[in-house]
Structure formats: C-alpha cells, structure tokens
Design a protein that fits this description.
single chain; 384 residues; alpha/beta; six-stranded antiparallel beta barrel; 25% strand
Length: 384
C-alpha cells in the first residue's frame, strides 16, 4: 500500500532495512521504524494542532506500544498516550510513559480500575452506567474526582465490528441523570469513532456522520447544565485534519497512523508526514512457481500489494503479494514470483504491530545520514 510512496519519499529507510537484514542485525518478520521521521511527523502534527488550539493524545499500538518512541513524543508536549486497552496502559505506565486517555476501544476490567486510577489518567471513556459506577467507587476510595468521557452513538452511525459500543443518544438525558448521582466522577468529554475518514473521491479527509452525533450529544449535555472540556474527534488524525477538527468544534485529536505516515491519505505526495515504517522478511522457499517469505506481521486491513525482492538496490525486483486467506495463520506471505532463498524482502503497508508476532527495530539518525540501530523490541513494547 505504501511501498511506492516510501521509495519516493524515504528511500533511505529501505536501504537501512536491507543493510540490517544483510548484516544479520535483524530477523525476518521485523518492522523497521525510522524514529527521526516519526518524531518529525509528531512535531508537525503538534505544530498544526497548536495553531488551532487542539490538544493531542497519541496512539502507540500501531508501533507496537513502543516505550522508547512514546517517551520522545511525550517530550514534544503531547498530553500523554491514549491506551486502547488495559494491557497497553500497564505496559506503558511500567515504562514511565504518561497515560492520558484510557477506555475508548476497550473498557477497564473491574479488577484493574483501582490500578488504572493510580496511573492518574486525564480522562477515562465509559459507555455503561455499570462501569461508571465502578470507576466512581474506586475514585471515592482514592479520594479523587475522576474525569470521564462518554462514547455516544446513534442508529445509522458507522461502527466497526469488534468495537460496537456507546451510549445511545436518544437515552442521553436519562443517562446523564444517573451519572449525576455519582459524586466522584465528572462528565468532561464526548467521543465517537471514526469521526473523520479519507475520501478517495475528493482526495480529502472528510467528516463522517458520527461527528453529527457528537455535536448533538454536546448540545444535549449543555441543556442538562454540563459543559465538557473535551470533544475528542479521532481517526485520520494528522497535519491536514487539524483544521477539520477545529471547524467542528473539536478540542482533542489522537494521531496513530499519522505518526508513521500511514493513514490512507498518506499515499498522496501532498501529505506532509513522511512514511516511517517498512516490513522486512526473507525468502523461505519456493513452491509451484510462487515465493514464500517468513510471515507473522500480517494485518487483515493492511491493503498490502507490492514487495521488493533483493538485498540491494542494483538487484531489486518488484513482485505482488498474494493476500493470506482470512482463516489461515500467516506462517508465510505468498508472492507471485519465485525468489532466491535467503534474500531480503521489503514491504510497506498499513499495520497494527500490537496484533502481530513481529519484532520492531528502531533506527535513529537517518535524517542526518548516520543511521544507528538503537533497539529491538517485541510487538508489545518489550525490549529484546
């Protein structure tokens, strides 16, 4: 999906990836990340956000919950990490990473609520009265008032399978009344997902119907005397979306793929962010005219298409990837052409490293022509 744009805009990343493979510094099934590019992207996004008065949490799951990168993004002035589940909260907090937003995609299990509150998150998203009650009880025990954010939905909104959740907007008045009875939580935000998506027809990042639901919910809260400080409008968060967030009254964004230059919008040369990640593997064997490379890094929504074969630029060839069947384990990626056993392969596609079996290699200094491998981690942020 991003191989051609990476060849045009960040060829040095491909070069160092091949070198690391050739010198046996990395194994097949490794994502190589250009840390300089990630941080430059994060800086550009932050500068754009500051221009519009928008605050940012950042996602780390796409990059394998990597604490090294997270700490450097913290230094740029982000509000902290948005952790998509309680396991990510635990990993990052134990590494000294600031936790900003918890609970949006995955609610906090009852047994971990007190532990999460000890991490002092700015805000926790809830979408059930029962969970709000448990957070209230834990906050009371701790002697604090915990800010919460309501995830709202309306019939007809875009919801992704595996993420179905939210308070029904038609019942919001009743929900608010119940939540007002909990004295150790404060309703301080509204969110939904996705609020923006890239539209190939217009070649722009456009608002979804979900955004109307957020605006309507905010009006309903104001009628009930509640003024929230956060209208959190995630998805496709990058330099070019900040104006859109501001246009619709948003206060917060949550860049994830924007940090690595891998949202669907980033296939365009006009995108400011650089592509910052490639996937390195190796030809394992050939079978019936097709090559097979070591797998482990497949993500079903990757839209992977092309692959580079060859250990150096002089001998590189392009081939096509045959997408793995959804019901199969990705022991291998199949490609249309045969390869040379043991030679390096490079791909660039949309990923979520935290759901893979891959290693993560961090490279610094590419922007200064002095690349250095600074660490290898597993897909869940643990240093190897």
């Amino acid at each position: 999906m991003f191989l051609e744009i990476t060849r045009k805009r960040n060829p040095k990343l491909i070069e160092i990836a091949r070198k690391l493979h050739k010198t046996k510094k990395i194994l097949p099934d490794t994502y190589v990340i250009d840390v300089d590019a990630v941080l430059e992207n994060a800086k550009m996004i932050k500068e754009s956000a500051d221009k519009y008065g928008i605050k940012l949490y950042y996602m780390s799951k796409q990059l394998g919950r990597n604490p090294y990168i997270c700490k450097k993004i913290d230094e740029l002035g982000y509000e902290g990490a948005v952790v998509v589940d309680y396991k990510e909260a635990r990993v990052l907090h134990n590494q000294g990473v600031k936790i900003g937003h918890v609970g949006h995609l995955v609610q906090i299990p009852d047994s971990l609520i007190e532990n999460i509150l000890e991490m002092n998150p700015q805000i926790i998203t809830v979408y059930s009265i029962e969970k709000a009650k448990k957070i209230n009880e834990a906050a009371k025990k701790k002697g604090i008032i915990q800010s919460i954010m309501l995830k709202i939905y309306k019939d007809g909104d875009l919801l992704y399978p595996g993420q179905y959740s939210g308070f029904e907007i038609e019942k919001i008045d009743e929900i608010i009344e119940k939540l007002k009875g909990f004295k150790n939580i404060k309703i301080d935000g509204i969110t939904h997902f996705p609020c923006f998506l890239y539209d190939e027809k217009t070649n722009k990042i456009e608002a979804t119907h979900n955004l109307n639901t957020v605006i309507e919910a905010n009006k309903r809260l104001e009628k009930n005397g509640i003024k929230v400080s956060q209208l959190n409008l995630p998805s496709s968060t990058c330099v070019k979306s900040m104006g859109k967030i501001a246009e619709f009254g948003g206060t917060h964004g949550e860049p994830g793929h924007g940090l690595s230059g891998t949202t669907p919008f980033h296939n365009e040369l006009s995108a400011p962010e650089l592509p910052a990640i490639v996937y390195v593997s190796e030809i394992s064997h050939n079978f019936q005219g097709h090559g097979y490379i070591y797998g482990g890094g497949h993500y079903r929504r990757s839209h992977v298409e092309n692959i580079i074969l060859g250990g150096d630029a002089k001998n590189e060839r392009l081939s096509k990837v045959v997408m793995p069947s959804p019901e199969a384990i990705d022991y291998y990626f199949e490609i249309e052409d045969e390869g040379i056993i043991g030679e390096a392969t490079i791909m660039a596609f949309r990923t979520q490293i935290f759901v893979t079996r891959s290693d993560v290699a961090l490279v610094e200094g590419l922007s200064k022509n002095s690349p250095k491998l600074v660490g290898i981690y597993d897909s869940l942020g643990r240093k190897l």
